[in-house]
Amino acid sequence: MPAVTPVAAARVQSAIALAANRTGVDFGYLLGQAKLESGLNASARAGTSSATGLYQFIEQSWLAVVKKHGGEHGLGWAANNIQRLPSGRYTVGDAGTRQAILNLRTSPEVASLMAAEHAGDNKAVLERKLGRPATGTDLYMAHFLGLGGASKFLTKLQNDPRASGADMFPQAAAANRNVFYDKAGQPRSLTAIYQRFTDKLGASAASAGQTAIAHATKAIELDGATIINGAGESSAQAMEWAATTLGRIGRQTIDTASVLRPTPDTARLAYLMLAGMGTR
């Protein structure tokens, strides 16, 4: 996968901050997920499936979320052209329009907004099915396996944690051997798969938090001016706070935060990053 340039990374991080600001989904969660999914590469494409873009949406998942939420974010033309068949499959009548909608997956701004909306939808459904609060790992499972697959996985995990994930999801296992099988080629249990994603999300959040420091610096270098209404901070003071906060967010595991109730720190960090774009 090609290295992401600093300019491209800055655009991606700004897009995620904007999505967090508009939807209320936690900035740290969205940043960590993007780091894990694509390495913050908005043009990333999978070699074993149709997964594309910052959040590696497959075609059907993308059409579904754009149909449901596109109109809320200026994509009414796309939402109106997507139809849901009685079978549950999503389709677009015109081939050119379909490709244009699918190409939106490589837009950091659109992909971040749709990923945030997708997380909110999945959280509500999973919590009803599981009877408990959904964690960041639960939401990632819904993104990875689809909502139905995640519900099946998480329900089985509660009842038979040592069951083989590959036996339950042979198609997904064939496309993602590194997830479902260990280095020796042995199938991983549901517990092992779940823990692996928990660890990777936490590590990705930490890594993404560090790479965001450079962009946060640019966002608050405003010639020493006060940049937070009512806080009375200089840019230097705000930068010191941002670096400290990013480090702390990075050290947390993704499951410690409520993805739909951002902490004051993560919300304020997103605000700082948006300040650099003149959007608040």
Your description of this structure?
The chain is mostly helical and 280 residues long. Helices cover 63% and strands 2% of the residues. It contains 13 helices and 2 strands; from the N terminus they run ααααββααααααααα. Helix 1 packs across helix 6, helix 3 crosses helix 6 and helix 7 runs antiparallel to helix 11. The longest helix has 31 residues. The relative contact order is 0.14.
Q: What share of the residues lie within helices?
A: 55-70%
Q: What fraction of residues sit in β-strands?
A: under 5%
CA-based shape: globular
Distance linking N and C termini: 33 Å
Q: Helix and strand string, N-terminal first?
A: HHHHEEHHHHHHHHH
Number of strands: 2
Task: Compute the number of helices.
Answer: 13
User: Residue-averaged pLDDT, rounded?
Assistant: 80
Computed structural class: mainly alpha
Biggest sheet character:
2 strands, antiparallel
Spatial strand sequence of the major β-sheet: 1-2
Low-confidence spans: pLDDT under 50, at least 5 residues? 213-233, 249-262, 275-280
Radius of gyration: 19 Å
Short summary of the structure?
This protein has 280 residues and is mainly α. It has 13 helices and two strands. Strand 1 and strand 2 (90-92) form a beta hairpin.
Key terms:
2 strands; mainly alpha; 13 helices
Give the SSE map.
Blueprint: H1 6-23, H2 27-38, H3 59-69, H4 76-81, E1 82-84, E2 90-92, H5 95-103, H6 108-130, H7 136-159, H8 165-168, H9 170-175, H10 177-180, H11 190-220, H12 235-251, H13 264-275
Antiparallel strand pairs: 1-2
